[in-house]
Structures are given as structure tokens and as C-alpha cells.
Design a protein that fits this description.
This protein is of the alpha+beta class. 39% of the residues lie in helices and 18% in strands. It folds into four domains: 3-90, no CATH class; 184-372, 2-Layer Sandwich (Dna Ligase, domain 1), CATH 3.30.1490.20; 382-561, D-amino Acid Aminotransferase, Chain A, domain 1; 579-766, no CATH class. The chain starts with a helix and ends with a strand.
């Protein structure tokens, strides 16, 4: 070898050793390993040359036993040989690479040691992560085992201690991926807290999709992103509760559910009037100065949320903030929204859900996710071009041509609230991702009725969230709305046709929100299907995602394991059931289900409910239903009622929440043609996900359709047990009927047989069906 080149390499090594004197032994050890494993110079040879005793090799490698410990002089001679052999065989580039790896491994070990400490503060650990990520990356990555150990420890400290989540996330979230989270995490100084489940699920899904080379083209095409986010750690919730004397509510979860329902509105107001510490208020103020007047959403991110086996869909609050006006007003609105999300941990729905999942004794800690709302400013409104929720598995199919594994999308124009909530007299577009042109069973003439008519928007001028019509949004259409041609069709005297070009030559009142061009004229649905399939494969379970599009980029808002439900084998409906034993039949939108031994039928009479004149009376009916749900919790019962259970519009159905109906085995929505509306098959809403996860069978009943059987006269003539079960609510017996089947039918109970392949279900009496 040229002497000049050798001296240059030698000096390079010595420079590194002078720069890292505390790492000299580990750098030299790394050189020795590289020389040995590359077959250039063996460990034995170096020891032989240093001492003439090859057996001393064991001492360097193991450092065990006094008999083999090296003297200072022996160490010096071995180190010098390693340096000279490294200079002989390694280029300057390789020398730098080896040293960089040794340094990174040392800092990585230090980072892992800190991450595994039981009570290390968030800020101290974050500083160690930043220190590690500031090192030159080098060409050689950390050994996989070492990297996985650090990732798992960091996920456990910063994100989630759920083993199923860690098992997936450690393969996709890298050490330096934490930096954006750490830079925007807000919590007490020296505190120890996590960002929570919703933030974790969003972040993990984004990393899974953007790191998959097979999805690179799709990710590029849709320009996949996550919203600009700020993370309120779970320890901030604990500080807020302690500093405001709210610990007295820690035992609220153990109270009877009816008591929880009554007290929750008061508790929510108490929380909303709580105070944050001055340093946290300063952080909130800085946050608002950074985002300006861009609309925000304050979202729950509980440590229990979006977990495997417990999704908590829609159980906690999420609050939109238009974020307009003076800074101090915006600050107070933000503080109130965060406090209201905190209060939602004590609501009846999450507590009831936690009881069902055996999580009631868990010390609930709420993280909060503050995000810029995804959307576009159009006139004085702000809204996503479209938003929705998509599922990797389609639980209910409306055609045999639809494959469950192709997934389902529920999409709306505007804020995604109309996609995940049950809304009044409105119909978001349902898309089977494998057959996007195949609509649910709707005749062409009904397309106008069964489409989206209302759009949720943020009115920037009025500083509030509003629900408006498409003509109200578009105005005179002097300003183009992004991708409107993919969203709307044109109504020409009752005939709805797709838009042919980007130029729409029609009055806004003649436009219908159909998403036909998006579904069948683009590959958006195929992109969604591919991404969902990848997420399901990585998670090892079906998933659902919430998304929004701003005219340029598709934003991933949330990802969680989909509510688990066993898809049963096809159920054979018994033939020749005596007609007098049939209570009702369903002729479409039926799942696979078989439930025997049903003892009670609870029926809210549609015509009586419609005649109630006040909102308070209708809310009282909801309270009766909730009380029956509690009273019959240890029995098997069917709950039947008008229109849409859980609707935001109290005129169209009984306004119940999850905790009001969660013990029912079957939920039936009764729709009469004269009512002017039909139950929306609510695939994809949070309400529907509640039913799926709780194993509640949902059935829409259309009594006036040909061939449908509905023995309403039996429900009306059988003895009403409401007064016996709930004496204090007996006055509502005309509206709510409770039939105890064994006593009303000489010992019969009911069986539900539902054939999802034939799209048919029958509820019938059976003598020994328990």
C-alpha cells in the first residue's frame, strides 16, 4: 500500500479517537469486529502478534474472569494493532462509517437505558431522542434487534403501553419519527405522559402507508398526509384535574348509570370553567399565534381509545373551533374545548362502554389532539372538499356482487361529521370499494331523495359551525369549487345525469351530491381499497380510517382496528313457520345472525311518538328506553321504534346514545311509507359501529313493502309490562309497549333467524328456543 495513503487513513482514525475519547474502546472494538467478520484479520492473529498467545482472544471478547484480564500494556499493543490493520484495509469512507456506527450504537444504548427507566420525564427523554437524531445518519443502520428495542421502549413511554400496538408499531415507527411529536407535545414540566390512542393510530397508519414501496405510486398520487397537529399529553389531564379539585369525580364511574346520566351535564360545566396553569396557557397562546386563524378541531385521544378490541368510536367529544376573532377570545374557546373533552371521560357512554369491556377500573387518562381542520376556504366558508370513513371489511352487503374483503366507504361533501354521525333526512354516499358503481338498492327516481342534501361547514364570518345546502354554499358559482365535477350530478327534470366535463353549466339548485364521477370516473376508490388492505395486513385485523380531502391532498385523520364481529355461516331460515308465529320479516339489508330465547319486545309506537308535541316529551321517551335498557340488561330483548334510532333530528327517531340501547340483542327501525322517509342503513357511522362491536343485530323494517309481515296487532294487544318494570314511567305506556313473550304466549320465546346471503330475516315465536 502507498505509504501516503496509509498515513492519511491512520491520521483519520486517530482524529476520530481524539474526538470521542470516551468511546475509544467501543470504536476499536467495532474495527476489530469488522476486520474479523470480513475475513481480513482474525482476532486470534491480532492477539498472537500482540502477545504470542492466541488464547487471550477470549479475554477481549468476554472480559470475564480475573485469569484473563489484560494488562494496560497488552491493551495498548492490541489497540495499536487494530488501528494499523484498520488503516491498511479500510478506506477513509469505510473508517468514517464504522466510527459513525460505533458512536450511534453508544448513543442508542444510552437512549434505550433512559427509555426503560420507570419514571423518566417526557422532556428529559425527548432531549435524548433529539441528541441521538442529531448524529450523522451514516450508511450503516443500527442492528435491527437494537433498533427494535429502542423503538419499543420509546413507544411505551411516548405513545402507548398496549402490547398489541407496540408489536405492530415498532416495525414501522423509527426513532427519529418521534421528533415532530416531541416538538409539538404540550404537558407539565418534568411530567410523564403519552399522546393517546387516536394520535397514535393516525401516526402509525401514516408511517405504514408511506413506507410501503408497493404503495409509493398511490401515496404520491393522492399526496397522502396527516394534519398539522399538537399533542396534549395525558399527564396534562391529571394536572388539570388535580389543580382544579376535580378528583372528587374519580369515583363517578362506579355510580349507577342513571345517576351518571343526570350528573354529567353539571360535571361538564364544572370542567369547562376549570383553569390551566400559567405555563400551559402560555403554550396554548403560542399555539394559536402559530396557527393564526385557521379553524381547529379539538379531539379526544384517550389512552384507551382506538385500541385492539376497544375502539371507543364516538364515545368522547371532538369539538370544532372556527378560531376567528381576537387572540384572547380564541384562547378562551380553546381552553373551554379542551376542558370539555376532558369532561367527556365521565359521560355515560364511555363509562358504559368501559364496563362492557372490563376496563372500568383502569385509571383513565385523556390525551388531546389539536389539529388544523383539513379543508379549503370557499367564499366565507371553510370545509373539506370531501371527507368520510372507510372500512377494510364490509360488514353488511347490499348485493351478492360485493365482496366483504373489498371494503366500504361512506363519503360526504364538507365536514366529516355527516359521515360518522346519524343525521336528519340525509344520505351520505355509500361506496363498495370493489364495485364503486354499485349503489344500495335505490331506484333511479329515488336518487334525488336518497342523496346528501346538507353540508356541514365552518362559517368564518359568523365564527360557528353551520349546516347549509349546496346552493347556499356555491352562491352564484363565480368562484370555482375544487373538484366539484367529481362530486355532483345534474338534475334535469327528475333525471340525474353525471357531469360530463369540469365546466359545470347548471344552476346550483339543479346539482345533486352523488360522487358518481369520483366513484366511477377516477381510481380514488381503488387507491382507498389498496391502502385499507395494507393496513389490515399489518394490523392483523380489519381496520377503519377517517379521511378528508382539501382539493390537493388526502389527509389521514384516524385509524383504528375495526369492531370485531364473527361473520357467521349462512343461517337457514326455517320453512313453513306458521304465519301466526311470525312477528315480522325483513326482506333486505339483513346480516347473518341467529338469536334464540328472546324474552322481551320493546316497541316505541311510531304514530304515538309522532303525536308528541314537545321536545321534552320526546326526550322523556328516550329516558324510558334508557331505563328499560338498564332494567332488562340481564335478559334478551328486541328494541323496535320509528325511523332512526340515535338521530340528531328528534322528529325522525328516538334520540338515544350508546349507553341507552347497548343491552338490546336486536335493534329494529320501523319505516312507514307515509312517513316520507326511510331508515338510512347507517353503515359506517359511529352509531352503527357501536351496534357491530356490541353484537347488536341491526334490522330496517319496511312494513308497507309487498311481502313484508309485521304483526303490529300482537304488540298492541299483548299485556304491556312497562308499568310493572318501571312504575314511575307508567304514564308512557301508550307510547312505549313492553311485551313479555313467555307470559303473553303461554311459554313461547322468540328466535331471530337472519340470512345475510338471501338478505332476509324472520323474528318468530318458538316453544323451546332458549
Amino acid at each position: 500500500m502507498d505509504a501516503g495513503r496509509f498515513e492519511k487513513r491512520l491520521e483519520r482514525i486517530r482524529q476520530h479517537l481524539r474526538r470521542h475519547p470516551h468511546l475509544q474502546a467501543k470504536i476499536l472494538r467495532q474495527f476489530l469486529i469488522e476486520l474479523h467478520t470480513a475475513g481480513l484479520v482474525s482476532v486470534e492473529r491480532i492477539y498472537s502478534e500482540a502477545e504470542g498467545r492466541a488464547e487471550d482472544a477470549a479475554a477481549l471478547l468476554s472480559r470475564e474472569g480475573e485469569a484473563h484480564r489484560l494488562t494496560h500494556e497488552r491493551r495498548r499493543r492490541i489497540d495499536e494493532l487494530i488501528i494499523r490493520y484498520a488503516a491498511r484495509y479500510f478506506s477513509v469512507r469505510r473508517i468514517d462509517r464504522i466510527v459513525n456506527l460505533a458512536v450511534r450504537r453508544e448513543y442508542a444504548q444510552l437512549l434505550e437505558d433512559f427509555a426503560n427507566l420507570p419514571n423518566v420525564s417526557f422532556d428529559l427523554l425527548a432531549a435524548r431522542v433529539r441528541e441521538f437524531c442529531s448524529l450523522p445518519r451514516g450508511e450503516v443502520p443500527l442492528p435491527e434487534a437494537e433498533a427494535l428495542g429502542i423503538r419499543a421502549a420509546l413507544i411505551r413511554q411516548f405513545v402507548s403501553d398496549q402490547l398489541e400496538f407496540i408489536g405492530v408499531a415498532k416495525h414501522h415507527i423509527r426513532i427519529c419519527d418521534f421528533l415532530p411529536i416531541l416538538d409539538r407535545a404540550i404537558g407539565p414540566k418534568q411530567g410523564i405522559g403519552k399522546i393517546g390512542g387516536k394520535a397514535a393510530g393516525m401516526f402509525l397508519a401514516y408511517k405504514i402507508l408511506t413506507r410501503d414501496p408497493e404503495l409509493a405510486e398511490i401515496v404520491r398520487k393522492v399526496d397522502l398526509r396527516i394534519p398539522e397537529s399538537y399533542y396534549l399529553r395525558s399527564d396534562l389531564y391529571q394536572q388539570f384535574v388535580q389543580e382544579n379539585g376535580l378528583m372528587i369525580f374519580y369515583d363517578q364511574k362506579y355510580k349507577p348509570l342513571e345517576e351518571i346520566r343526570k350528573e354529567y351535564p353539571v360535571i361538564r360545566e364544572i370542567f369547562k370553567n376549570g383553569e390551566f396553569s400559567p405555563d400551559i396557557m402560555a403554550r396554548f397562546r403560542a399555539l394559536l399565534e402559530e396557527v393564526g386563524t385557521h379553524p381547529l378541531i379539538v379531539r379526544s385521544s384517550s389512552l384507551l381509545e382506538d385500541n385492539f378490541g376497544s375502539a371507543f368510536s364516538g364515545k368522547y367529544e371532538s369539538i370544532f373551533l372556527p378560531n376567528q376573532g381576537p387572540l384572547e377570545e380564541r384562547l378562551q374557546a380553546l381552553v373551554g374545548a379542551v376542558a370539555e373533552v376532558y369532561a367527556s371521560t365521565l359521560g355515560p357512554d364511555p363509562i358504559s362502554y368501559r364496563r362492557e369491556k372490563n376496563l372500568i377500573d383502569y385509571d383513565e387518562r385523556m390525551g388531546v389532539l389539536i389539529q388544523k381542520v383539513v379543508g379549503v376556504k370557499y367564499r366565507h366558508y371553510f370545509l373539506p372538499v370531501w371527507a368520510g370513513v372507510a372500512f377494510s371489511r364490509n360488514v353488511y352487503r347490499w348485493s351478492t356482487r360485493i365482496r366483504r374483503e373489498d371494503g366500504l366507504m361512506r363519503i360526504v361533501m364538507g365536514l366529516g361529521t355527516r359521515a360518522v354521525d346519524r343525521v336528519a333526512a340525509d344520505y351520505p354516499r355509500l361506496v363498495a370499494l370493489g364495485a364503486p358503481g354499485l349503489r344500495p338498492a335505490i331506484e333511479a327516481k329515488d336518487l334525488l331523495r336518497y342523496s346528501q342534501h346538507w353540508i356541514d361547514v365552518i362559517n368564518l364570518a359568523r365564527n360557528r359551525v353551520e349546516t347549509i345546502t349546496l346552493p347556499e354554499l356555491l352562491g352564484d358559482m363565480s368562484e370555482p369549487f375544487p373538484d366539484l365535477h367529481l362530486i355532483v350530478s345534474i338534475n334535469e327534470e327528475g333525471h340525474v345525469r353525471p357531469v360530463a366535463t369540469k365546466l359545470i353549466n347548471a344552476h346550483p339548485r339543479d346539482l345533486v351530491i352523488t360522487f358518481d364521477r369520483l366513484a366511477t370516473g377516477t381510481d380514488f376508490c381503488e387507491c382507498m381499497r389498496r391502502m385499507l388492505q395494507r393496513l389490515e395486513a399489518v394490523y392483523g385485523s380489519p381496520v377503519d380510517v377517517e379521511f378528508a380531502y382539501d382539493g390537493h391532498s388526502l389527509y389521514l385523520l384516524q385509524c383504528r382496528p375495526q369492531a370485531a364481529r364473527i361473520v357467521m355461516e349462512r343461517v337457514e331460515i326455517p320453512r313453513n313457520i306458521p304465519r301466526e308465529r311470525v312477528i315480522f320479516t325483513v326482506e333486505h339489508d339483513a346480516p347473518n345472525a341467529l338469536i334464540r330465547g328472546i324474552e322481551y319486545l320493546v316497541y316505541v309506537r311510531p304514530e304515538c311518538y309522532d303525536r308528541l308535541n314537545t321536545v321534552e316529551d320526546r326526550l322523556e321517551v328516550a329516558r324510558v328506553v334508557a331505563a328499560l335498557n338498564d332494567k332488562l340488561s340481564h335478559t334478551s330483548f328486541v328494541l323496535m321504534g320509528p325511523g332512526r334510532w340515535g338521530s340528531n333530528d328528534i322528529r325522525l327517531g328516538v334520540r338515544v346514545r350508546y349507553s341507552d340501547i347497548n343491552h338490546a340483542r336486536v335493534l329494529v327501525e320501523v319505516a312507514r311509507q307515509r312517513d316520507g322517509y326511510t331508515p338510512e342503513v347507517s353503515f359506517g357511522t359511529h352509531f352503527f359501529q357501536d351496534l357491530v362491536e356490541a353484537g347488536i343485530v341491526y334490522l330496517p323494517l319496511y312494513p308497507d313493502e309487498p311481502g313484508v309481515v309485521f304483526r303490529e296487532e300482537f304488540l298492541l294487544s299483548a299485556p304491556n309490562k312497562l308499568g310493572e318494570l318501571l312504575p314511575e314511567m307508567a304514564k308512557w305506556a301508550d307510547v312505549v309497549r313492553v311485551v313479555h313473550l313467555p307470559s303473553a304466549t303461554d311459554g313461547f320465546t322468540a328466535t331471530l333467524a337472519s340470512d345475510g346471503e338471501a338478505d332476509r330475516a324472520v323474528l318468530h315465536l318458538e316453544k323451546d328456543s332458549v
